[in-house]
User: What shape does this take?
Amino acid sequence: MEKLLTEVCKIQYGFPFDSSKFNKREGMPLIRIRDISSGCTEAYTTEEFKDEYVVKKGDILIGMDGEFNIAKWSGEDALLNQRVCRLIPFNVDADYLYYFMPKVLKEIETKTSFVTVKHLSAKQLNGIVISLPTLERQKFVATVLQRTEKSIDKRKQQLQKLDELVKARFVEMFGDPVNNSLGWEEHYLDEYIEFLTSGSRGWAKYFVDNGSEIFITIKNVKNSHIVLDAIQYINAPDNKEAERTKVQNGDLLISITADLGRTGVVDAGIANIGAYINQHLSLIRLNKLEVNPMYVSYFLETEGGKKQFSSKNQSAVKAGLNFEAIKSLKIFMPPLELQNQFAEFVQQIDKSKLKVQKSLDKLETLKKALMQKYFG
Assistant: This one.
Protein backbone atom coordinates (compact mmCIF):
# COMPACT_ATOMS: atom_id res chain seq x y z
CA MET A 1 0.00 0.00 0.00
CA GLU A 2 1.16 3.52 -0.79
CA LYS A 3 0.10 6.81 0.77
CA LEU A 4 1.14 10.44 0.56
CA LEU A 5 3.41 11.59 3.36
CA THR A 6 0.72 14.06 4.43
CA GLU A 7 -1.67 11.13 5.01
CA VAL A 8 0.57 9.51 7.60
CA CYS A 9 2.15 12.45 9.39
CA LYS A 10 1.85 16.16 10.02
CA ILE A 11 4.61 18.31 8.51
CA GLN A 12 5.30 21.25 10.79
CA TYR A 13 7.44 24.08 9.43
CA GLY A 14 9.68 26.20 11.63
CA PHE A 15 8.84 29.71 12.78
CA PRO A 16 10.75 32.72 11.37
CA PHE A 17 12.24 33.86 14.66
CA ASP A 18 13.74 37.36 14.65
CA SER A 19 17.50 37.02 14.13
CA SER A 20 18.10 40.34 15.91
CA LYS A 21 17.12 38.59 19.15
CA PHE A 22 19.57 35.71 18.68
CA ASN A 23 22.39 35.37 21.22
CA LYS A 24 24.73 32.72 22.59
CA ARG A 25 23.29 32.03 26.05
CA GLU A 26 20.06 33.80 27.03
CA GLY A 27 16.52 32.56 26.45
CA MET A 28 15.47 29.39 24.64
CA PRO A 29 17.79 27.26 22.44
CA LEU A 30 17.04 27.55 18.74
CA ILE A 31 17.46 24.76 16.17
CA ARG A 32 18.94 25.84 12.86
CA ILE A 33 19.85 23.60 9.93
CA ARG A 34 23.46 23.23 11.07
CA ASP A 35 22.28 21.86 14.45
CA ILE A 36 20.07 19.01 13.22
CA SER A 37 22.70 16.27 13.00
CA SER A 38 24.82 17.32 15.97
CA GLY A 39 21.94 17.80 18.39
CA CYS A 40 23.75 20.87 19.77
CA THR A 41 22.44 24.41 19.45
CA GLU A 42 24.68 27.43 19.04
CA ALA A 43 21.97 30.11 19.16
CA TYR A 44 19.37 31.19 21.70
CA THR A 45 16.50 33.62 21.41
CA THR A 46 14.74 35.87 23.89
CA GLU A 47 11.71 36.15 21.60
CA GLU A 48 8.36 34.94 22.92
CA PHE A 49 7.20 31.64 21.41
CA LYS A 50 4.28 29.25 21.21
CA ASP A 51 4.64 25.82 22.83
CA GLU A 52 3.81 24.16 19.50
CA TYR A 53 7.30 25.12 18.25
CA VAL A 54 9.15 23.38 21.10
CA VAL A 55 11.09 20.36 19.80
CA LYS A 56 11.54 17.40 22.14
CA LYS A 57 14.22 14.72 22.18
CA GLY A 58 13.44 12.04 19.58
CA ASP A 59 11.45 14.31 17.25
CA ILE A 60 12.16 13.80 13.55
CA LEU A 61 13.66 16.90 11.90
CA ILE A 62 14.56 17.70 8.29
CA GLY A 63 16.83 20.48 7.03
CA MET A 64 15.28 22.24 4.04
CA ASP A 65 18.38 23.94 2.61
CA GLY A 66 21.64 22.54 1.25
CA GLU A 67 21.77 18.83 1.97
CA PHE A 68 18.33 17.67 3.03
CA ASN A 69 19.48 16.02 6.25
CA ILE A 70 17.12 14.08 8.49
CA ALA A 71 17.80 13.21 12.11
CA LYS A 72 16.11 12.50 15.41
CA TRP A 73 16.71 15.44 17.70
CA SER A 74 19.11 14.37 20.45
CA GLY A 75 19.52 17.64 22.36
CA GLU A 76 17.56 19.53 24.99
CA ASP A 77 14.17 21.12 24.36
CA ALA A 78 14.63 23.78 21.67
CA LEU A 79 12.68 25.89 19.21
CA LEU A 80 11.92 24.93 15.62
CA ASN A 81 13.40 27.68 13.45
CA GLN A 82 12.52 28.45 9.83
CA ARG A 83 13.89 26.17 7.08
CA VAL A 84 13.71 23.25 9.51
CA CYS A 85 10.60 21.08 9.59
CA ARG A 86 9.35 18.40 11.96
CA LEU A 87 7.53 15.20 10.99
CA ILE A 88 4.78 14.24 13.47
CA PRO A 89 3.60 10.68 12.62
CA PHE A 90 0.02 9.55 13.22
CA ASN A 91 -0.74 6.71 10.75
CA VAL A 92 2.71 5.13 10.56
CA ASP A 93 5.34 3.72 12.88
CA ALA A 94 7.60 6.66 13.71
CA ASP A 95 10.83 4.69 13.39
CA TYR A 96 9.77 3.15 10.08
CA LEU A 97 9.09 6.65 8.75
CA TYR A 98 12.49 7.83 9.97
CA TYR A 99 14.30 5.06 8.08
CA PHE A 100 12.16 5.42 4.95
CA MET A 101 12.76 9.14 4.45
CA PRO A 102 16.54 9.43 3.72
CA LYS A 103 16.33 7.66 0.34
CA VAL A 104 13.48 9.78 -0.98
CA LEU A 105 15.06 12.98 0.36
CA LYS A 106 18.30 12.11 -1.43
CA GLU A 107 16.37 11.56 -4.66
CA ILE A 108 14.72 14.98 -4.31
CA GLU A 109 18.07 16.59 -3.51
CA THR A 110 19.66 15.05 -6.60
CA LYS A 111 16.86 16.28 -8.86
CA THR A 112 16.62 19.76 -7.33
CA SER A 113 18.34 22.48 -9.35
CA PHE A 114 20.23 25.23 -7.55
CA VAL A 115 22.33 28.32 -8.08
CA THR A 116 24.06 28.57 -4.70
CA VAL A 117 22.03 26.47 -2.21
CA LYS A 118 19.41 23.79 -2.83
CA HIS A 119 15.99 24.36 -1.25
CA LEU A 120 13.44 21.73 -0.26
CA SER A 121 9.90 23.02 -0.84
CA ALA A 122 6.62 22.23 0.91
CA LYS A 123 5.28 21.10 -2.46
CA GLN A 124 8.05 18.50 -2.76
CA LEU A 125 7.43 17.22 0.76
CA ASN A 126 3.68 17.05 0.23
CA GLY A 127 4.22 15.01 -2.93
CA ILE A 128 6.28 12.25 -1.28
CA VAL A 129 4.70 8.82 -1.57
CA ILE A 130 5.53 6.35 1.20
CA SER A 131 5.29 2.56 0.88
CA LEU A 132 3.36 1.16 3.81
CA PRO A 133 3.44 -2.54 4.71
CA THR A 134 1.39 -3.70 7.69
CA LEU A 135 2.09 -2.01 11.01
CA GLU A 136 3.59 -5.27 12.28
CA ARG A 137 6.00 -5.32 9.31
CA GLN A 138 6.86 -1.64 9.83
CA LYS A 139 7.85 -2.35 13.43
CA PHE A 140 9.90 -5.38 12.39
CA VAL A 141 11.85 -3.39 9.78
CA ALA A 142 12.45 -0.54 12.23
CA THR A 143 13.65 -2.94 14.93
CA VAL A 144 16.18 -4.64 12.62
CA LEU A 145 17.58 -1.28 11.49
CA GLN A 146 17.67 0.05 15.06
CA ARG A 147 19.70 -2.93 16.23
CA THR A 148 22.14 -2.46 13.37
CA GLU A 149 22.46 1.26 14.12
CA LYS A 150 23.09 0.59 17.80
CA SER A 151 25.93 -1.76 16.88
CA ILE A 152 27.35 0.89 14.54
CA ASP A 153 27.14 3.54 17.26
CA LYS A 154 28.85 1.18 19.70
CA ARG A 155 31.80 0.70 17.32
CA LYS A 156 32.06 4.46 16.78
CA GLN A 157 32.12 5.00 20.53
CA GLN A 158 34.87 2.41 20.85
CA LEU A 159 36.96 4.26 18.26
CA GLN A 160 36.39 7.55 20.07
CA LYS A 161 37.41 6.06 23.41
CA LEU A 162 40.60 4.65 21.89
CA ASP A 163 41.45 8.12 20.54
CA GLU A 164 40.79 9.61 23.97
CA LEU A 165 43.00 6.95 25.53
CA VAL A 166 45.95 8.06 23.36
CA LYS A 167 45.42 11.71 24.27
CA ALA A 168 45.25 10.82 27.96
CA ARG A 169 48.43 8.78 27.63
CA PHE A 170 50.18 11.74 26.01
CA VAL A 171 49.37 14.01 28.95
CA GLU A 172 50.31 11.27 31.42
CA MET A 173 53.74 10.86 29.81
CA PHE A 174 54.54 14.45 28.81
CA GLY A 175 52.40 16.69 31.00
CA ASP A 176 50.26 19.65 30.01
CA PRO A 177 51.23 20.63 26.44
CA VAL A 178 50.21 24.27 27.00
CA ASN A 179 52.10 25.19 30.16
CA ASN A 180 54.82 22.50 30.00
CA SER A 181 53.99 21.22 33.46
CA LEU A 182 56.94 18.77 33.48
CA GLY A 183 59.47 21.41 32.46
CA TRP A 184 60.84 19.88 29.24
CA GLU A 185 63.32 21.88 27.17
CA GLU A 186 61.74 23.76 24.27
CA HIS A 187 63.27 23.57 20.80
CA TYR A 188 62.43 24.91 17.37
CA LEU A 189 61.23 22.28 14.92
CA ASP A 190 63.85 23.60 12.49
CA GLU A 191 66.58 21.98 14.60
CA TYR A 192 65.37 18.52 13.54
CA ILE A 193 64.27 19.08 9.93
CA GLU A 194 66.31 17.27 7.29
CA PHE A 195 64.01 18.04 4.35
CA LEU A 196 61.07 20.41 3.94
CA THR A 197 58.87 20.94 0.90
CA SER A 198 55.29 21.43 -0.21
CA GLY A 199 53.21 19.74 -2.88
CA SER A 200 52.68 20.69 -6.49
CA ARG A 201 49.80 22.18 -8.44
CA GLY A 202 48.43 20.87 -11.70
CA TRP A 203 48.35 17.17 -10.89
CA ALA A 204 44.74 16.67 -11.99
CA LYS A 205 46.00 15.53 -15.40
CA TYR A 206 47.57 12.51 -13.68
CA PHE A 207 44.35 11.45 -11.88
CA VAL A 208 42.96 8.00 -12.72
CA ASP A 209 40.02 5.96 -11.42
CA ASN A 210 42.29 3.10 -10.44
CA GLY A 211 46.04 3.26 -10.13
CA SER A 212 49.01 1.90 -8.29
CA GLU A 213 49.84 5.15 -6.47
CA ILE A 214 47.85 7.75 -4.50
CA PHE A 215 47.57 11.52 -4.14
CA ILE A 216 47.31 12.83 -0.57
CA THR A 217 45.21 15.93 0.14
CA ILE A 218 44.16 17.75 3.33
CA LYS A 219 41.12 15.52 3.79
CA ASN A 220 43.45 12.51 4.05
CA VAL A 221 45.51 14.08 6.87
CA LYS A 222 43.77 13.73 10.22
CA ASN A 223 44.58 13.16 13.89
CA SER A 224 48.25 12.31 13.30
CA HIS A 225 47.40 9.69 10.65
CA ILE A 226 46.93 9.40 6.90
CA VAL A 227 43.41 8.14 6.25
CA LEU A 228 42.58 6.54 2.93
CA ASP A 229 38.90 7.50 2.72
CA ALA A 230 37.94 8.79 -0.73
CA ILE A 231 41.52 8.51 -1.92
CA GLN A 232 42.56 9.83 -5.31
CA TYR A 233 44.61 7.49 -7.51
CA ILE A 234 47.25 8.77 -9.91
CA ASN A 235 49.73 7.70 -12.52
CA ALA A 236 52.60 9.88 -11.36
CA PRO A 237 55.06 11.31 -13.89
CA ASP A 238 58.70 10.26 -13.90
CA ASN A 239 60.29 13.62 -13.18
CA LYS A 240 62.01 15.70 -10.49
CA GLU A 241 58.76 17.22 -9.26
CA ALA A 242 57.31 13.80 -8.51
CA GLU A 243 60.52 12.73 -6.84
CA ARG A 244 60.45 15.85 -4.63
CA THR A 245 56.85 15.40 -3.46
CA LYS A 246 56.86 11.62 -2.98
CA VAL A 247 56.49 10.66 0.68
CA GLN A 248 58.69 8.31 2.67
CA ASN A 249 58.01 6.23 5.76
CA GLY A 250 57.94 8.50 8.83
CA ASP A 251 57.37 11.76 6.95
CA LEU A 252 55.32 14.32 8.87
CA LEU A 253 52.61 16.05 6.82
CA ILE A 254 51.04 19.35 7.91
CA SER A 255 48.22 21.27 6.23
CA ILE A 256 49.43 24.78 5.36
CA THR A 257 46.28 26.34 3.90
CA ALA A 258 42.55 26.32 4.73
CA ASP A 259 42.23 24.03 7.79
CA LEU A 260 45.65 24.82 9.25
CA GLY A 261 47.64 22.44 11.37
CA ARG A 262 46.13 19.08 10.51
CA THR A 263 48.94 16.56 10.86
CA GLY A 264 49.64 12.99 9.85
CA VAL A 265 52.59 10.63 9.81
CA VAL A 266 53.21 8.45 6.76
CA ASP A 267 53.49 4.76 7.62
CA ALA A 268 55.41 2.08 5.76
CA GLY A 269 52.30 0.76 4.02
CA ILE A 270 51.48 4.11 2.40
CA ALA A 271 55.11 4.76 1.54
CA ASN A 272 55.34 1.36 -0.19
CA ILE A 273 52.20 2.04 -2.22
CA GLY A 274 53.73 5.26 -3.51
CA ALA A 275 52.10 8.55 -2.50
CA TYR A 276 52.48 12.23 -3.37
CA ILE A 277 51.21 15.42 -1.71
CA ASN A 278 49.23 18.32 -3.13
CA GLN A 279 50.02 22.02 -2.76
CA HIS A 280 48.03 22.44 0.46
CA LEU A 281 50.38 20.20 2.43
CA SER A 282 53.95 20.47 3.62
CA LEU A 283 56.23 17.44 3.89
CA ILE A 284 58.67 17.44 6.79
CA ARG A 285 61.38 14.80 7.02
CA LEU A 286 62.79 14.77 10.55
CA ASN A 287 66.00 13.40 12.04
CA LYS A 288 64.65 10.24 13.64
CA LEU A 289 67.82 9.81 15.71
CA GLU A 290 66.78 12.87 17.69
CA VAL A 291 63.00 13.09 17.50
CA ASN A 292 60.07 10.74 16.84
CA PRO A 293 57.69 12.03 14.08
CA MET A 294 54.65 10.50 15.77
CA TYR A 295 55.43 12.31 19.02
CA VAL A 296 55.84 15.60 17.13
CA SER A 297 52.57 15.06 15.28
CA TYR A 298 50.60 14.40 18.47
CA PHE A 299 52.22 17.38 20.17
CA LEU A 300 51.19 19.66 17.29
CA GLU A 301 47.63 18.29 17.51
CA THR A 302 47.35 19.34 21.17
CA GLU A 303 46.01 22.69 22.32
CA GLY A 304 49.59 23.88 22.66
CA GLY A 305 50.31 23.09 19.04
CA LYS A 306 47.05 24.50 17.70
CA LYS A 307 47.68 27.82 19.44
CA GLN A 308 50.97 28.11 17.60
CA PHE A 309 49.31 27.48 14.24
CA SER A 310 46.74 30.16 14.97
CA SER A 311 49.39 32.70 15.97
CA LYS A 312 51.47 32.01 12.87
CA ASN A 313 48.60 32.21 10.41
CA GLN A 314 49.72 34.73 7.79
CA SER A 315 46.30 36.18 7.09
CA ALA A 316 42.98 36.60 8.82
CA VAL A 317 41.28 36.33 5.42
CA LYS A 318 42.99 33.36 3.81
CA ALA A 319 44.72 30.90 6.11
CA GLY A 320 48.30 30.02 5.28
CA LEU A 321 51.68 28.96 6.66
CA ASN A 322 55.06 29.46 5.00
CA PHE A 323 58.21 27.43 5.57
CA GLU A 324 59.63 29.93 8.06
CA ALA A 325 56.50 29.64 10.17
CA ILE A 326 56.82 25.85 10.16
CA LYS A 327 60.50 25.99 11.10
CA SER A 328 59.72 28.32 14.01
CA LEU A 329 57.19 25.96 15.61
CA LYS A 330 58.28 25.09 19.14
CA ILE A 331 58.08 21.60 20.61
CA PHE A 332 58.82 20.21 24.06
CA MET A 333 61.69 17.74 23.95
CA PRO A 334 61.41 14.81 26.37
CA PRO A 335 64.00 12.02 25.96
CA LEU A 336 63.79 10.15 22.65
CA GLU A 337 63.29 6.87 24.52
CA LEU A 338 60.10 8.29 26.06
CA GLN A 339 58.92 9.56 22.66
CA ASN A 340 59.49 6.12 21.16
CA GLN A 341 57.52 4.47 23.99
CA PHE A 342 54.60 6.76 23.20
CA ALA A 343 54.83 5.96 19.47
CA GLU A 344 54.77 2.22 20.30
CA PHE A 345 51.66 2.78 22.43
CA VAL A 346 50.01 4.58 19.49
CA GLN A 347 50.92 1.65 17.25
CA GLN A 348 49.23 -0.82 19.60
CA ILE A 349 46.11 1.34 19.83
CA ASP A 350 46.05 1.61 16.02
CA LYS A 351 45.94 -2.19 15.82
CA SER A 352 42.92 -2.23 18.12
CA LYS A 353 41.29 0.55 16.10
CA LEU A 354 41.83 -1.40 12.89
CA LYS A 355 39.88 -4.36 14.28
CA VAL A 356 37.04 -2.12 15.40
CA GLN A 357 37.03 -0.27 12.09
CA LYS A 358 36.76 -3.51 10.12
CA SER A 359 33.76 -4.49 12.23
CA LEU A 360 32.26 -1.02 11.71
CA ASP A 361 32.73 -1.26 7.95
CA LYS A 362 30.91 -4.60 7.86
CA LEU A 363 28.02 -3.21 9.89
CA GLU A 364 27.68 -0.14 7.67
CA THR A 365 27.69 -2.39 4.60
CA LEU A 366 24.99 -4.50 6.25
CA LYS A 367 22.89 -1.42 6.97
CA LYS A 368 23.10 -0.29 3.33
CA ALA A 369 22.04 -3.76 2.20
CA LEU A 370 19.10 -3.77 4.61
CA MET A 371 18.00 -0.30 3.50
CA GLN A 372 18.10 -1.49 -0.10
CA LYS A 373 16.16 -4.64 0.80
CA TYR A 374 13.42 -2.83 2.69
CA PHE A 375 13.09 0.40 0.72
CA GLY A 376 14.53 -0.39 -2.73
User: Anything to note?
Assistant: Residues 135-176+334-376 form a domain with the Helix Hairpins fold (CATH 1.10.287.1120).
